[in-house]
Specification:
The two termini are about 25 Å apart. Helix content is about 25%, strand content about 30%.
Length: about 100
């Protein structure tokens, strides 16, 4: 589900922008994923598994067009510093369940 930009001010006075990603964000997002994966073993992907522009482009298109998924990026000074992906289940009996992925610099 595509979301409009939301700006907010951080405690240090810098402006942050929370928004849905665009296809033009793919390379910048890959850099963010690689940096996160190099910092810890607790990420879903290893650093060498992060450079998949086609897969990430598909993820962006799917999330932005979905009624059951939200994918957001947080930028500070033009740099991606966080990402969040949340999807809910569509079946009635598990409609209350969701999956959440969160990564922050």
């Amino acid at each position: 589900m595509w979301q409009p930009e939301k700006e907010f001010i951080l405690k240090d006075g810098r402006k942050a922008v929370l928004r849905s990603p665009e296809i033009s964000d793919v390379e910048k997002y890959i850099g963010f994923l690689i940096q996160r994966a190099e910092e810890t073993d607790n990420m879903l992907r290893d650093p060498d598994e992060c450079d998949r522009p086609e897969e990430i482009s598909d993820q962006i298109r799917q999330a932005n067009g979905s009624a059951a998924e939200v994918f957001l990026l947080c930028e500070v000074e033009g740099k991606i510093v966080g990402s969040c992906d949340m999807s809910r289940k569509l079946l009635r009996k598990i409609h209350h369940r969701a999956e959440l992925s969160l990564s922050v610099s």
